[in-house]
Design goal:
Layout (H helix, E strand, L loop, with lengths): L2 H11 L1 H10 L2 H25 L7 H21 L4
Helix pairs in contact: 1-3, 2-3, 3-4
């Protein structure tokens, strides 16, 4: 395994505090945690594609990045009356 895979695992471990913030924080904290987790997930997918030497898998992180931007906006729109 390459250093890219180890970096991806380290980034996944770094998501634990964000998950706790989403579960126990306020709604504003949950929105920030959600956006953080989605951006880190895209980076993890890109790191894994490079780590396993699969250039064709780089399409997935790009597609996920576009879709997750929209889901963040929907999440905020649904919660705007409580924020």
């Amino acid at each position: 395994m390459t250093s890219f895979v180890f970096a991806a695992v380290a980034m996944l471990i770094a998501l634990v505090p964000a998950g706790i913030t989403i579960a126990r924080g306020t709604l504003a904290d949950a929105v920030i945690g959600f956006e953080f987790i989605t951006s880190v997930a895209v980076m993890v997918f890109a790191l894994l594609a490079e780590g396993f030497k699969r250039p064709s898998l780089f399409e997935f992180p790009v597609l996920v990045a576009l879709l997750l931007f929209g889901t963040g906006l929907v999440f905020v729109r649904a919660l705007e009356r409580w924020l």
